[in-house]
């Protein structure tokens, strides 16, 4: 024919020939002269039409051969022949004559060659084994049964898998076929076979190479899918940090096999580039890209070394003749994997290509006019169609429109079929759509009153095209499915069935309801009825998709002749029948992987148009969507994911529809699909179910209809209760639905959702925890969401109670039989170089790897309870804290140190972040920004007293109870307590100090020297941090300076630039009060702290070393010095007296703090000399004591001599000016006990030390004797000292 060889004048032949045939087929124009007789002209027109059809048929046949498109009429025969040929060509036992038995030998037989009986037994065993292998190579199932019955193979899946993996002589192709079967035994054997591989530490392509050494992938896509799905799961288990999920490994496995085919198949001319490979794999890692370097490295290794079986004995001729894609079972999913259309790579036509071809033809034409060249490039056919498609369209359209001759009509429809086939095969989308839409127009389904027999024939042609060319229709499916929709609509009208609109309308009042009842009743055309018949006929004459729709008002009067004509037309449609149309949907299973996605897209568009019709919403296509989803659910998951991506968006859109009945119908349809989908088992680390359930989740969040949200909850409930054993990743979407319901504004929704959650957790807890940790986290978050409900406090408390239930179940180890536990050890081994370099895996986010897997689940539960401690409702706070610490107290013995670290860091310590961030958000110690905000804040005070105090005590108790495990966390616990003590809030500091003492009293005896050093250093840090600060009085204009910053306070943000004197006075008073309150609070905290230090010392005096005591001494000495500095500042004291009514502080302000600090310092040093603990150095301690005593006496003398000259010296006697006042006497009286204790401490020194330091003390004693005192205590003590201690020393020296 004309396309099997190409003449150099090719570019001029097709259009001339086709135009000539077109003119001939159209006949002589009216009025033109002709010598032809009418019969001759009719015959000529008919032959021209036949020739045009033959040309197109020839094009189609040549295209089929070039593209290896099977003949649709003999597809089954060819498929059977191919399968038998393939099996027959690959059934050789091993191909190289080696022993097919391999290592399989009866273990009970002795290896003694001299034993004739043993040799006979071995020979019989081998023969029987060979018989079983031979039977397997013919019928794998029969062979396995034979070997099991003969006791050559165990009957467990693991034994059978080991036999298939290790035995020689088995047909590798049949091994793959057997492993890919859906039967229960084959599935179990395949799982055991894959699980027998250890891929840990392997690169991805290396793992595939190892995996595919022992068998050949089967030719059926579903079988390949099952095997590769399990491989991806196994690789992800062995290398948990390689990819984000098994889905990534699954898609990448297909991509790698495709690359292997592309790179090493000589039939593939245009090889895939590394950039193509990277582009094809974008977004496969949970929406993110794998690192480009990783993919480049993978590409280079695959391109360099082919992935093949260990015994690949196909001769080169076989390899070239066989389609590698077919051998790998990838021919039907190629475009889905690469996300690239076939025509984009093979049918890309451009003006440059056409000009290049024309130039070649011209050059060859100059050489010879009689040489023909064989056509080998399909693009040539595309060029031919480009130049002659318009005449062909006219040649078929005009006669089809004007003629009623059956032969002409048949030829025209046949021409349309071949034209559509050729344009589909050459991927000429525009031309294909023109032919399809023209043929759809000739069906006259949009105007049923004008239907004739030729229109019915056009409908049949549409069905045939859908059947034969469905794999190539792409977007044109929309036109065909629209015709199907209209056809079914007309059939329903003819049968008198009520329209879907009667179920999808919601009148607002009684009048509208009555009006609609009258307008939407559809008559039964095959029965007589005066008014109803007229109305229905008018509706049909306007068409099914006009602007008025079925519910509109009929215009004009319909005659009985027109009605009879319509009835006759509807009878003609019965020639096609619903079964023919339904075959389009049932045969969707036969569409290839790319075509089914196009089919679903088109069907969704048609359904959307049906449902959005304002007057005639229909659900025909929606029901068909459910059907084809059922039909195609067994497709490989990669293809099904692409299908569901389209359906998911569709169901979300319809589920949020304003038409409630349509939305309900859509959600119920989705429920049916979900129930069927959940019948399929999902392997570990996959995310299919979660993606499938997403529409429920999204509609639940977006829908404003209470009925829809309630329906979704009931649908999810039904799915869980009936398919709970198969639910894996779907838990995430289910819990998200219930979490959304927990925040719903409708009370019934909340109650219903919580009732279901109660049942799920109570009855199916092991199924929740058998999947991933994130599933249990979602469950906990769901319960926490219910604690926040505003409808019923009982629900909140019950939700917290269920958290306790979860804790009990975790402690009991009621976690189900998780498959990931089997691979726990594997997953902990070293992983290969991960493509996710630099990213943190799940185990880096707080999960523990040192203990049993069930401990992973504790963290989200405890963290959830911790969050509830911030709840503003006292009952919830109290209950949450009670359960949190009860769970830790009762089950903490199960926890390892790493888990305890996470618990303290992320569960317990955050409870007190409320204190650190709410009370003091900036972390500063500014009293203006913090103290004033806290004063009178009842909510904060309630939290402090009701929650914070209890929580801190419980944390301390936990630390004490599990000290043997958590003792390395002492430093963090001490930091928490010190952070409380440092806060500028007396109540907080008091809570921290009380907890500190509680910790020391219960755990102090357990501390080592290193732990005690941490304790005393923490006390020192707290003491230094809480020193009272009066520096704000040093600057006279501190009020003015504070005013500049006043707008930062909440109440002063709107102050004008020029404030009134009264405002300035209020500011000064407010700021001054805040600073003084802060100083007073710090002073009170210091007093509490030094008292706590003394209490701790008294409890553990004999456990503290000299080093520990000197640290405490330094801390309290610094406090005493600071207090003395404040007390001796006369300027400061006078200012404080000036504001006496506001400050309500004694004069001096820190006298008590100074005295008690010095007193404890003296006690520490004196007891050190007495106790002589570990690391005690007498000289150092005595030196500290002597300096301290001198310091105390000097300070007292200065205070007592303040009525003398301002700078007294030791060699010069002061002169009296005025006697001491009553205030001074009171101060001296207060200081007297400290001075008396100091004199006693000096006397307690050893004789040698006393004599050595007497020269230093004597001037002080002299001054002490000459100054005035507040009481006689000092004078009595001094007298005793001089007579009992100093006197004997002086007499001895004389």
How large is the count of helical segments?
A: 58
Shape: elongated
Helix content: 55-70%
Strand content: under 5%
Largest sheet: 2 strands, antiparallel
Spatial extent as radius of gyration: 47 Å
Distance between the termini: 148 Å
Uncertain stretches of 5 or more adjacent residues: 1-11, 75-114, 313-350, 506-535, 542-555, 817-834, 836-853, 918-938, 1038-1056, 1204-1212, 1214-1218
How many beta-strand elements? 2
Protein structure class:
mainly alpha
Mean pLDDT: 75
Structure, described:
- With 1294 residues, this protein is mainly α.
- 67% of the residues lie in helices and 0% in strands.
- A two-stranded antiparallel ribbon has the order 1-2.
- The longest helix has 39 residues, at 1061-1099.
- The relative contact order is 0.04.
- The N terminus is likely disordered.
Short characterization:
This protein has 1294 residues and is mainly alpha-helical.
For this entry, give a set of tags.
1294 residues; two-stranded antiparallel sheet; 58 helices; elongated; disordered N terminus
List the helices and strands and how they pair.
Layout: E1 5-6, H1 13-26, H2 38-67, H3 75-89, H4 116-138, H5 140-149, H6 157-166, H7 172-180, H8 184-195, H9 204-211, H10 221-238, H11 246-264, H12 274-280, H13 292-304, H14 316-321, H15 324-328, H16 334-338, H17 342-346, H18 351-367, E2 373-374, H19 378-402, H20 406-425, H21 429-442, H22 453-468, H23 477-495, H24 510-519, H25 530-542, H26 560-573, H27 577-586, H28 593-612, H29 620-631, H30 637-655, H31 660-677, H32 688-702, H33 706-723, H34 730-742, H35 747-769, H36 773-787, H37 793-812, H38 824-828, H39 858-868, H40 874-891, H41 897-908, H42 913-919, H43 927-934, H44 938-961, H45 963-966, H46 970-982, H47 986-1003, H48 1009-1025, H49 1038-1044, H50 1061-1099, H51 1106-1127, H52 1130-1138, H53 1140-1143, H54 1151-1171, H55 1178-1200, H56 1222-1243, H57 1247-1266, H58 1273-1293
Helix pairs in contact: 1-2, 1-19, 2-19, 2-20, 4-5, 6-8, 7-10, 8-10, 10-11, 11-13, 12-13, 19-20, 19-21, 20-21, 20-22, 21-22, 22-27, 23-26, 23-28, 25-26, 28-29, 28-30, 29-31, 30-32, 31-32, 31-33, 32-33, 32-34, 33-34, 33-35, 34-35, 34-36, 35-36, 35-37, 36-37, 36-39, 37-40, 39-40, 39-41, 40-44, ...
